[in-house]
Structures are given as structure tokens and as C-alpha cells.
Design goal:
This protein is α/β, with parallel strands linked by helices. It contains 30 helices and 28 strands. Strands 1, 2, 5, 6, 7, 8, 9, 10, 13 and 14 form a ten-stranded mixed β-sheet that branches. A six-stranded parallel β-sheet has the order 17-16-15-18-19-20, with helices on both faces. Strands 21-22-26-25 form a four-stranded antiparallel β-sheet, with no helix packed on it.
Length: 856
């Protein structure tokens, strides 16, 4: 049937309740327990049915009930308290204002603005624009940016079908469903222009233009803009661009990434926002760097190289995966299809353009990599844990040829979680009693978390036991629904009420079922596994959850194996798999488990954040020393599986580490949990819980993380970007010209000689003086820096613990320049050195960015 016109229907709220509409459309409520309880109070059962969606709740609830509530003085008092909290939150000065009372301002006098781009955002149950950890981290990033009052906006896509919904068939194979979501009935709203019309832009695709509509989600003080192509004016194929997250083929992926990166920049311009800094959260949005350059070329008349200098210093890039397949690459033919017109619009040849996304710029067979594009055109790049930073430097070293691994310009900022979004209400009440209120305002303050030791053991344990009981109740309810949907027998459905024991040691394992995460490692020795779970005196149970990628047959088979195991008569009360892993399931799990098990194949877990969510709820981690746990584990706050070894033989590695899991569980974890005194309290276990809370919560949270991004990346990037725009871009233009001369003359640089003034045997306290004679061609000594690169010799004969020591030019003539430098001999042992030349310019923040380095 053909539709003539659309219209919208808004809920009819009594005057005294109208403020609820504003509250519902700002997801601040989702991390404030009093606000959640307020909506639950309207109709708790309906709240659960509607997936914790206050907008849908207000539009669905019976009008008579609303009228009755509007006359309930208790409810009205509760509402006034919540609105008071909300208004104070939105108006009071916070960390950013206190730390940067005069933030950097651009050439128009506007304060700095950060635009955070991500392909997914996991913020709350009723906005399904996320798939997993990357999106949840992005959502937590926005929430902490709001808590800290950073001048930040988010940019993403509005997926009409979200990520897939998971259900299992009778044999346990994962099936995918893609329901359409009614975003008009969620906290997302169309972004209207001054004329009251929805804001749209046009975006070029091959042989056509598409229309993109803008939606907004208010995240406390921060706004998230979401781009949508599901519009009647677009063709059916183009409406599909924002249908599914990570759905479709490679061509759909490039369409989405053009929309996110290039379309996202155009949307911000359309609504009057000019970001000083753009944060590229994973490579999906990296095309934005090109659009920022094109904008400056069009509006300011700059060349590509000049515009590149301006925009690069204002780009921040975070890489999230050490798995090569997780970094998007596009074949040259596909890039030609979508960018052949774009090449000329930014003044580049095809070869020059393709070189921006290739590790080897001269390799015509290398595809275009989004991660390489972001690394080349971002002044600040980082991994998401200390170990991942090291892995990333090794992984992407070819982008900076001849640069030692330890100097590759990729640092790390370890991930965190937004504690208020993941901690249980019960734990909030407990912490407020003994830690006060400031842990929520400043969760990174270690002194506050030291007060955890004031909590009586009995109170902490009872609080945790309540959460385990609720997890068991939640799991039984979900299991029953799964069995009914799957067409199970009445007996099986009735048996679901017996699944799990609310007093047994409960292990949680929930994550994406990629093979490297080894979801079935615990079941490698089935006899030992069954013996562990079947002990009547000291019972152990495990709850699994997670999705496999729709095209990952191996990952799906891991899930099928778990389902078959859970159907065994001797294990059906001890093993449960919860379908359709999402924020709601994750919240119940991390708040209720005793132990969180994590078994990635090191070093393939970039960070991981689920274990951090467990820690703030009093649970304990047991994990391979990978990602964040490699730096978070201190022997007293959980358990490590192995000692960080890496093996060439993956089968042997699986065998060794599966045995380590059994040993740790049998000899340490289970005995500690069931070691009870006369009061039935596991005192040593509780001591470990407190150690975990006190050491992990203040460190692994997004408040600390976002502060680090602000101090190490955002503010320095903004200051540098603004510096490059001053005086009509004179610094950017000068740097660009200087680089052109550098490229033309670099090949003329050569070492005539390198000499040391003493022998090879020195004593502590001596100085080893080195002199280097260098020819620079038409370059001047001020254009370069000659460095001594020195360190200790390791067991492989390589330099380690290195440092670069600048050498001083002590004599020059028109052809040869003499440089002198000294190495202090302050430690015994075998040392070594090299001599190199790198570019030097006051406006060049990273000497490796030009890709030029010469070693003697």
C-alpha cells in the first residue's frame, strides 16, 4: 500500500510530568541510579519489556496511570530530586573548566572543539548502534567527556537494523535476525535547523548523490550526531548504507566509511561546528582527514601540502586491533571507483593519493589501508594498552622506514570503563556509605579507593551475594525464554528453573566468539573440566555469552560446542549459554560473577574492558597476561594464566594454557572461595576483592583515560593546530615549503666520517666523544639534527634501553659540517651507538613524519 504522508505522535503528559520528556531525551539518566529508579517507578514491568527505553515508556504507558502518578506526592518529590541532580550536573564547572580555565581558541575566537568519530557507540540498551567492545568504549568515552565537561561532540551512523540479534537453532548453531528499529521512539531525535526542518546534506557517490539526514543523541553535556541514509528520497540500495553495522560486503564497507568520514565532516560544517581536533576511533572514519584538507583548500586557497600541515596536527588516531584482518583495506579498483573524482579535487595524482594508504608508497600492488591513512595524517597516534602500544609499533613500523621500533610514533593510552554505567546499584550504595560521594565525581583518585578497606567484610560479601543471586535469577529467566523460542520440550523448560546455584562459585566468560579469544579453551580436557564442575562439596558453574561474526563459521562452531555441552545431564545445571549478548546481558554478568575468565591468544587482545567492569563490582579476574591485564595484574588482585609466554605452535600453546587454567582453578581459586570461617565468610577471598577494587578501579576507568587524551593529545593538538592557522597560515605554508626543499635535497646528505676520540674500553665516569663529518648539499645545519643513538647491547647483539643524544655542529664550511657529541659512561657493561641524521624544524613536532632518516 502506498503511503501518502507521515506524521508523528508525541506522548500526552500531565503538566506536572512534562519535565520527564526532557529527561528521557538525555541519556544522562542511564548512568544515574535515581533517574533509572524514577522511570522504573512508572511501570517496572513495562520498563523491562521496552528494553529500558524511557521515551517508549512515556509513549506507551496508560494515560490513567500517568494521571495517577502526577498526583502522587512521593513520585513528584522523587522527580524533583532527580531533576535537581540533572540541572546541577549540566551547569556546575567540572574538571576541564578547572584545569583549562582559558582553553585554546581558534582564529575566529571560538574555544577548541573535539569531534570524536566512531563507527559504533554503545551507550544504553535502547540505542542499538553498537556491536561490542569498540562501541561500548566509545559510549563510555562520551559519558566521561560529559562528566569532565570536555568540549566534545560525537559523530557516528544510525543503523536502522543495528547489529544482528542472535538466536540459536535446535542444534546450537547461531542464527542472525535483523529487526528494524523505530528510532523515533528512542532518545535519538532528528536534528532540526533554524527553520524547524530536519538537517540534511548531500553526499557524492559514483554517478549519483545521496541525501543524509542528521539525528542527535544528548549524552549529558555532550551531543552525538548520527548520520542516516534510510530516507524515501534515496534509492533502495542507498537506503541500505546505514542498515546494518558491519553488514554487507567490502563495497558496503567503503560506502559506510565514506559516509562516516567525509559525510561526518560535512554534517558538522552544516550545523555550524568547526572542530579544532578530530579523534579517529579506529580506522573506519579515516577518510575525514582528506575532507578536512579539501575544505581548507577550497575555503582558504591552500595547496594540498599546506592544508595537510594544518589538519594533520589536529588529528588524533586510536588503533584498536593487533589482528591484521581487523584493519580495513580496499583494493585499488574500488578506491578508483569511489575516489577518482576526489583525487583531482585535492590536487593529487592517483599514485600520490594511493600512497597515503600504503605502507610502501611505491608498491602498486598494495591495497589502500585505512589504518595507514590515519597514521600518516594524524599527529597523535596510540594503542589502547601498554602491550598493544608495543605490538602496534612493531606492526606498523614499515610506515616509518629505518625508524627503530621503540621510536615509532605510536604511544599508548590504556582503555578504561565508565564506572557509573557498569557498577550495580547495590555496590553504589555500599561505596557511598564507606567511600563518600567523590568516587563518582573523580573515580581516578586513588586515595578515595584506598578507603575500600574500611568496608566490613560481611557487608561487602552480602552485597556481592545479592548480585550473584540476581544474576542466577536473570540467567534462568533468559534461559527459559531461549528454550521456549527454540521449541524445547516442557521438561527442558521446567529444568531451566534448576539451572545454576545462587551460592556456587560462578565464572563468567562473555565476548565476541572469534577463534583467537579461545572460548572453549576451558573445555580442552573434558574429563578434568567435568570433574571441576561436578564437585558436590565445592561446586563450580560457568555462564557463557557472546556472538560470532555472521561469516565466521569457526566462531559459530565454538558456540555450538558449548550448547551441546550444556545439554549434558551432568552439566545442565552448571553450564549456561545466554543468547544475544548485549549491554543488558553484560551488565548482569559483570555485576554478579565471582570470576571473569579471559583466554585470548597473546598478544591479540588489544585491551579488553569487560574485566574492568567486573573489578568495580567486586569480582575477580583470571586472565592471560594480555591487553590491560598485562599491566593491571599485581599477583594480589586476581590470577594470571601463564607468565606472558608466546609460542610459535598454537596447539601447544592451547594445551599448556588450558592446563594452567585447570591448575589455577583447582589449587587456588576454588579452595580460596570455599575456605570459610565460622561466620561462613571467605575472608581471604574478600581480601582479594578489596585489593582488586582498590588497585584497578581508580586506574581502569574512562575518567582517567579521557583526562589523558585531553592532556596528551587533545589540548596539545588544538594548540598546535591553532598555531599553524595564525597570521593567515604562515607557519603551515612555511613548513610546507621547507619540506619540499627537504625532499629535493635529502639524497645529497652523506657521512664523510665518524670517529671517536678514545678507545673502546672506558671506565664509569668517562665521556665517549664522537665526531661526525657530514655533507648536507644545499641544506643547512639548522634543517637537520645529527644524533648519537646509543644504548646497551642485549643478548641478541642489538641495542636496547636506547636514547637519542643530539650532536652539536662545531664547524661548517660550504660543503662539510663537523658535529660533536658525547655519551656519558655511567653504567658498566657492553654498550653501542649509531649516528643518524633526522629532519629538524620548530614547527615539525614529529621528526619521523616526513619519512626521512639517514644512518651512518
Amino acid at each position: 500500500m502506498r503511503m501518502l504522508k507521515t506524521f508523528s505522535v508525541a506522548p500526552l503528559l500531565p503538566n506536572r510530568l512534562k519535565v520527564l520528556q526532557d529527561l528521557a531525551h538525555n541519556i544522562w539518566w542511564c548512568w544515574h541510579p535515581n533517574a533509572i529508579d524514577l522511570f522504573r517507578r512508572l511501570d517496572n514491568e513495562l520498563w523491562e519489556q521496552l528494553n529500558h527505553n524511557p521515551v517508549a515508556l512515556l509513549g506507551t504507558i496508560d494515560q490513567e496511570k500517568l494521571k495517577s502518578v502526577s498526583e502522587d506526592e512521593g513520585f513528584l518529590a522523587h522527580m524533583q530530586r532527580v531533576m535537581g541532580e540533572f540541572e546541577a550536573y549540566m551547569s556546575e564547572p567540572r574538571w576541564f573548566q578547572k584545569t583549562y580555565p582559558e582553553p585554546p581558541k581558534d582564529i575566529t575566537g571560538n574555544p577548541m572543539l573535539i569531534a570524536y568519530f566512531s563507527a559504533e557507540f554503545g551507550m544504553t540498551d535502547c540505542l542499538p548502534v553498537y556491536s561490542g567492545g569498540l562501541g561500548v568504549l566509545a559510549g563510555d568515552h562520551l559519558k566521561s567527556a560529559s562528566d569532565l565537561s570536555l568540549p566534545l561532540v560525537g559523530v557516528g551512523l544510525l543503523y536502522s537494523q543495528g547489529y544482528f540479534r542472535q538466536y540459536l537453532n535446535a542444534d546450537g548453531w547461531q542464527q542472525e535476525a535483523y529487526p528494524f528499529y523505530d528510532y523515533a521512539n528512542t532518545p535519538a531525535e532528528p536534528y532540526y535547523n533554524e527553520e524547524g526542518m530536519p538537517t540534511t546534506i548531500e553526499l557524492d557517490y559514483p554517478d549519483r548523490k545521496i541525501t543524509v539526514q542528521v539525528w542527535q543523541v544528548k549524552v549529558g553535556r555532550v551531543k552525538l550526531f548520527l548520520l542516516d541514509t534510510n530516507l524515501p528520497s534515496n534509492s533502495p540500495a542507498d537506503r541500505e548504507i546505514t542498515a546494518r553495522l558491519y553488514g554487507g560486503d567490502l563495497e558496503m564497507r567503503i560506502k559506510q566509511e565514506v559516509l562516516l568520514g567525509i559525510g561526518g565532516i560535512r554534517v558538522l560544517a552544516k550545523i555550524g561546528l568547526n572542530p579544532t581536533v578530530c579523534h579517529i576511533n579506529e580506522g573506519h572514519s579515516a577518510f575525514l582527514v582528506l575532507e578536512r584538507i579539501r575544505n581548507l583548500m577550497v575555503t582558504r586557497g591552500l595547496s594540498f601540502e599546506e592544508a595537510r600541515e594544518v589538519t594533520t596536527c589536529g588529528n588524533v588516531f586510536t588503533t584498536h586491533t593487533p589482528v591484521p584482518a581487523g584493519n580495513d583495506v580496499f583494493p585499488s579498483a574500488m578506491m578508483d571507483k569511489y575516489f577518482s573524482q576526489y583525487y583531482s579535487s585535492i590536487g593529487l595524482s592517483r599514485k600520490q593519493f594511493m600512497a597515503l594508504g600504503r605502507q610502501n608508497a611505491n608498491d602498486e600492488n598494495e591495497p589502500f589501508c585505512m589504518t595507514v591513512l590515519a597514521l600518516r595524517l594524524a599527529a597523535h597516534s596510540n594503542g589502547v594498552s601498554r602491550l598493544h602500544g608495543d605490538v602496534s609499533r612493531r606492526m606498523w613500523q614499515r610506515v616509518w622506514p629505518d625508524v627503530p621500533v621503540e621510536e615509532v610514533p605510536i604511544k599508548h593510552i590504556t582503555n578504561g570503563i565508565h564506572i557509573s554505567s557498569w557498577i550495580s546499584h547495590d555496590m553504589v550504595d555500599l561505596l557511598e556509605r564507606y567511600l563518600g560521594l567523590k568516587w563518582r565525581e573523580d573515580p581516578a583518585d586513588r586515595k578515595i579507593w584506598d578507603r575500600v578497606n574500611r568496608i566490613p567484610d560481611a557487608e561487602l560479601w552480602r552485597t556481592h551475594e545479592r548480585r550473584r543471586e540476581r544474576l542466577v535469577e536473570f540467567s534462568r529467566r533468559r534461559l527459559r525464554q531461549q528454550l521456549i523460542r527454540r521449541g524445547a520440550t516442557k521438561t527442558e523448560i521446567m529444568q531451566s528453573e534448576e539451572a545454576l546455584d545462587p551460592e556456587a562459585l560462578t565464572i563468567g566468560f562473555a565476548r565476541r566468539f572469534a577463534t583467537y579469544k579461545r572460548g572453549t579453551l576451558l573445555m580442552r580436557d573434558m574429563e578434568r573440566f567435568i570433574r571441576l564442575l561436578s564437585d558436590q562439596r565445592r561446586p563450580v558453574q560457568i555462564i557463557f555469552a557472546g556472538k560470532a561474526h555472521p561469516r565466521d563459521a569457526e566462531g559459530k562452531d565454538l558456540i555450538r560446542q558449548i550448547i551441546h555441552l550444556a545439554r549434558r545431564e551432568d552439566l545442565r545445571r552448571r553450564v549456561v549459554f545466554l543468547e544475544d549478548y548485549d549491554i543488558n546481558v553484560a551488565r548482569s554478568l559483570v555485576q554478579g560473577v565471582d570470576v571473569w575468565l579471559n583466554t585470548p591468544r597473546r598478544p591479540m587482545e588489544a585491551s579488553g574492558t569487560s574485566g574492568m567492569k567486573v573489578a568495580c563490582n567486586g569480582g575477580l579476574n583470571m586472565s592471560i597476561l594480555d591487553g590491560w591485564w598485562d599491566e593491571g595484574y599485581n599477583t594480589e588482585n586476581g590470577w594470571a594464566i601463564g607468565s606472558g609466554e608466546m609460542y610459535d605452535d598454537s596447539q601447544y600453546q592451547d594445551q599448556v594454557e588450558s592446563q594452567a587454567i585447570y591448575d589455577t582453578l583447582e589449587k587456588e581459586v576454588v579452595p580460596l572461595f570455599y575456605d570459610r570461617g565460622p561466620d561462613n565468610l571467605p575472608r581471604k577471598w574478600i581480601e582479594k576483592m578489596k585489593g582488586s577494587l582498590a588497585t584497578l578501579s581508580p586506574e581502569y576507568n574512562t575518567s582517567r583515560m579521557v583526562q589523558e587524551y585531553a592532556q596528551q593529545s587533545y589540548v596539545p593538538a588544538a594548540e598546535w593546530a591553532i598555531q599553524m592557522t595564525q597570521n593567515d597560515y604562515v607557519n603551515a605554508i612555511g613548513l610546507s615549503k621547507w619540506k619540499q626543499g627537504l625532499y629535493q635535497n635529502w639524497a645529497a646528505i652523506r657521512f664523510d666520517s665518524v670517529e671517536q676520540t678514545s678507545g673502546d674500553k672506558l671506565t664509569v665516569g668517562n665521556q665517549l666523544e664522537i665526531r661526525a663529518s657530514v655533507r648536507l648539499g644545499d641544506l643547512k645545519p639548522d634543517d637537520i639534527e645529527v644524533q648519537l643513538y646509543t644504548g646497551r647491547i642485549d643478548g641478541h647483539g642489538q641495542l636496547s634501553m636506547t636514547q637519542a643524544v643530539p650532536m652539536e655542529c662545531i664547524n661548517s664550511n660550504s660543503h662539510v659540517h663537523l658535529f660533536k657529541g658525547s655519551i656519558p659512561c655511567d653504567k658498566t657493561g657492553i654498550h653501542g651507538y649509531g649516528v643518524r641524521v633526522v629532519p629538524k624544524n620548530k614547527d615539525l613536532r614529529n621528526p619521523y613524519e616526513p619519512g626521512l632518516i639517514l644512518w651512518a
